[in-house]
Amino acid sequence: MIEESSRLDPKLVEEFLKFGKNMAEAPKLVPALDEINLEVTEHEVAYTEDKVRLLHYKPRTSTQIKTPLIIAYALINRYHILDIHPQKSWVRNLLDQGIDVYMVDWGTPTNMDKYLDLDDYVNGYLDNCVDFVRDESEVDNVSLQGYCTGGTIGTVYTSLHPEKIKNFVATAPVIDGWRDTTVVSNLAKHIDVDKMVDSIGNMPPEFMYYCFSILKPFEQGIEKYTNFFRNIENESFVDNFLRVEKWLGDTPPIPGELFKQWIRDIYQDNLLIQDKMYVGGKHISLKNITMPIFTQVAIGDHLVSPECSMPLHYAVGSEDKTLRVYPTGHVGMIASSLSQKKVLPELGQWLKEHSELR
Length: 358
What we know:
alpha/beta, Rossmann fold, eight-stranded mixed beta sheet, two-stranded antiparallel sheet
């Protein structure tokens, strides 16, 4: 006689069989990543320099504020995460609030770019993009937003060129490397970056994939794909999953010299927050950031610890500063329902209050 406790739960058997069926039928139900249309917001390429492009998005409202916003995206992956889906688009939401939006696309560095450094990106590419927008918009200064590593580049730029920036928005910026408790930070603090770059040159996408895979090995591996196959008949779930996977799979190399400076100055020696950092021979002081600043931090951020980002709020010289902490993660802060309902409305209102109106 079979004991009651040893019998298989029929629901468990049913779920197991359904899971197997979903795996078998996945090729028929799911398109390939290169077939996914991200439905990016309409834009034009306003300026180009080497591999870098400056995108200008088409207005979606008749009334716009005069001060344009330039978004400096991160050096990892692509800017598409800020325009990942029409209903979760950071860019589209800001456009709908009457903000004139530009985006810096850093492009795909090649071996000939391995000697590009922070000076090239900050005082070269980004400065030229800012000057282009100032001229085109006929304004003395612009609003600048930096996301993730783009937030660090934006911070350095704003310190060096405060006269060109009316408002600065730092979204999950890497600021205090010693306070960052993420796997990426811990790995960065223990690598011989000089030997690595001398051997490899540009930092390849494969290294970035490795870093992402060890951040949350269970969530990024078994759990993620288990949830995918469980929900394979949910078109909305599958669509969102594939859009993010396409974004994750599109990672450009990072110029070797830039990567070397980044690891050494930000994570290992932690120069930025200590006011000891130099870029292009010029001293970076956070006290030079005296314009209004809005810092956005995610509590569940596994790429940039909140403790790493928040010190910026307290270190700048500005008296008009706002810090917002959100109950979400690194990507959730910019591409989620919370982002659309909470994060972006607060940012849009702040930008309107601190910008020149037409």
